[in-house]
Design goal:
This protein is about 30% helix and about 30% strand. By secondary structure, the protein is an alpha/beta fold.
Length: about 270
């Protein structure tokens, strides 16, 4: 796919500068500044009500800043047709509606049309069909291509939606708590699939929202700690996900450890 709105600096996928968002007279986001580059994989963490999903919605172009500047793929929100940007942004949310009778293959193919249902009489090309099968396989769903949505586990549904988002070959992938509600096996399968995706797509930038460090893939490179709508810390993951900063973010003492590239936290104590 040819990008019709190629940015001047292709390395910068997203840049927020002093972004505020006011809703019903309340300041939800306060002076948010961050730059995300191609190939970087960001974690967005913070307690309930910190503004994580709100910030993700701005990144997805479904909300606009009240003040400040948000540039996505080199184009400023408020000065660009968001419908020309959205095909280049994959946005995975738990609220995505799917007809229960649809198969995994059918759901993934809706990523071509950008619709909830496949349009009547629409037939995918051979290349689109091949790509859908490749993505289904990459997300660990090869044996589930004909399985119907209603029969899938929560983890299988999440991986199906990621494959769907990838059909449009986005440059930015936004994942809103993709591991929420999963058991340990489902979480590990999902995180392994995300790590493999990042390895296969080295220029793809991602932002993953979670409350739990255990839900971060090993390939996470950068992190944002958000508290009460403000940035507490942002930067390389080793500098941000520390015992001191995470404890301050959640206003509770937690000890942070990392083993084999994955994070763990123990609440109520600081090592």
């Amino acid at each position: 796919m040819t990008d019709p709105i190629a940015p001047a600096d292709p390395d910068v996928v997203l840049r927020a500068q002093n972004v505020d968002l006011v809703r019903d007279g309340k300041l939800i986001l306060d002076r948010i500044s961050v730059t995300i580059r191609a190939g970087e994989h960001w974690a967005l963490l913070g307690p309930n009500g910190a503004g994580k999903s709100t910030l993700l919605n701005i990144m997805a172009t479904y909300a606009h800043p009240t003040r400040g500047q948000m540039d996505i793929l080199g184009h400023r929100l408020g000065r660009v047709n968001v419908f020309s940007l959205r095909p280049w942004i994959g946005h995975i949310t738990p609220s995505h509606r799917v007809e229960p009778a649809r198969t995994v293959r059918q759901v993934v193919l809706t990523g071509v049309t950008g619709t909830i249902e496949l349009p009547q009489y629409w037939v995918p090309t051979a290349a689109e069909t091949s790509r859908s099968e490749e993505l289904i396989d990459m997300m660990g769903l090869k044996g589930f291509a004909s399985a119907r949505w209603r029969t899938l586990s929560q983890g299988e549904r999440g991986r199906t939606l990621i494959a769907r988002a990838l059909m449009a070959e986005p440059r930015l992938l936004l994942l809103d708590e993709p591991a929420a509600g999963l058991d340990v096996a489902g979480r590990e399968q999902l995180l392994a699939s995300i790590d493999e995706l990042r390895e296969r797509r080295p220029t793809l930038a991602t932002v993953l929202v979670t409350h739990h460090l255990e839900e971060l893939p090993a390939s996470t490179s950068h992190a944002i700690l958000l508290r009460a709508g403000q940035l507490l810390a942002t930067g390389p993951v080793a500098d941000v996900l520390t015992t001191e900063l995470v404890s301050a973010c959640f206003d509770y003492p937690v000890a942070i450890a990392r083993h084999a590239g994955r994070w763990a936290s123990i609440a109520g104590t600081v090592w």
